[in-house]
């Protein structure tokens, strides 16, 4: 495209202007590739500590409940929404939609509790504890709900909530060279949405300069912790496998030396 555009520009507009047209086209292609990068879902190549695009390999291992998402470009104001859309597409659900469905279900559960329905505990109620809800888009009248719900268990017949089988999301930042303020805010919002639907989020291979910028911009709080960051992708996967005791298939990775 750059070559054809430069050639036509030189023929129709003259050599100097044609070269300027070629330069402009080259800049546009760089912007386009950066704004719409080719994000990918990574999997482990069986018997190794290598992680590649799952579309390119056959002999692969992907732990249950784990998704590894690679961002192949810098993240800035022009592509943060594209990145979030691709992330939702990769995991197969929208965490904000799931969160809203859960809050709607909680309101129904609260009504059932008021009626003292005896069989609620057999259909998804687990571990009584005071639930703390402090986000502005969450219903404020649920702060005093004294139960915790197992959303993957069987719920009462009139309550329907999307099932989330993902327990760990790993973001590969090895190709992310910088973040601007808009992207930082969008990234923080996206991570919190996953955290609030009980998905553990990890960021791997993050550049030291970006980590320093995250600290200076107050990126971390009670939900976004520094413990989310791991030096390599393999370290994060080993941590996830150990945490969730994926013994059935985890031996493929656990027996591999770093």
List the helices and strands and how they pair.
Blueprint: H1 2-13, H2 15-35, E1 40-45, E2 51-53, E3 60-61, E4 66-70, H3 80-91, H4 95-114, E5 125-126, E6 148-149, E7 168-172, H5 181-195, E8 200-204, H6 208-216, E9 229-230, H7 233-244, H8 247-254
Parallel strand pairs: 4-7, 7-8, 8-9
Antiparallel strand pairs: 1-2, 1-3, 1-4, 5-6
Helix pairs in contact: 1-2, 7-8
Protein name: STAS domain-containing protein
Domain STAS: 56-240
GO cellular component, one term: membrane
The first-to-last residue Cα distance is 43 Å
Nearest-angstrom radius of gyration?
23 Å
- Strands, count: 9
Name the structural class: alpha/beta
Poorly predicted spans: 118-143, 246-252
Mean pLDDT: 81
Counting DSSP H or I runs of 4 or more residues, the number of helices is 8
Return the string of H and E elements.
HHEEEEHHEEEHEHEHH
Strand % is: 5-15%
Principal-axis shape = elongated
Provide the helix percentage. 40-55%
Give the oligomeric state of the chains in this entry, treating copies of one chain as homo and distinct chains as hetero: single chain
How does the major sheet shape up? 7 strands, mixed
């Amino acid at each position: 495209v750059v070559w054809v555009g430069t050639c036509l520009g030189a023929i129709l507009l003259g050599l100097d202007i044609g070269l300027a047209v070629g330069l402009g086209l080259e800049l546009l292609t760089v912007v386009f590739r950066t704004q719409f990068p080719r994000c990918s879902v990574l999997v482990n190549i069986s018997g190794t500590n290598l992680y590649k695009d799952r579309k390119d390999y056959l002999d692969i291992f992907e732990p249950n409940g784990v998704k590894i998402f690679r961002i192949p470009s810098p993240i800035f104001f022009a592509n943060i929404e594209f990145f979030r859309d691709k992330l939702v597409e990769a995991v197969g659900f929208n965490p904000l939609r799931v969160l809203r469905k859960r809050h709607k279900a909680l309101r129904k559960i609260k009504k059932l509790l008021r009626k003292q329905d005896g069989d609620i505990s057999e259909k998804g109620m687990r571990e009584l504890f005071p639930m703390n809800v402090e986000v502005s888009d969450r219903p404020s009248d649920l702060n005093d709900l004294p139960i915790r719900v197992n959303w993957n268990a069987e719920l009462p017949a009139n309550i329907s909530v999307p099932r989330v089988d993902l327990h760990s999301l790993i973001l590969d930042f090895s190709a992310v060279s910088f973040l601007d303020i808009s992207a930082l805010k969008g990234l923080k919002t996206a991570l919190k949405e996953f955290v609030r639907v009980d998905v553990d989020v990890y960021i791997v291979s993050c550049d030291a300069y970006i980590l320093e910028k995250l600290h200076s911009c107050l990126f971390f709080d009670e939900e976004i912790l520094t413990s989310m960051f791991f030096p390599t992708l393999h370290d994060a996967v080993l941590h996830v496998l150990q945490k969730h005791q994926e013994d059935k298939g985890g031996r493929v990775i656990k027996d591999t030396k770093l």
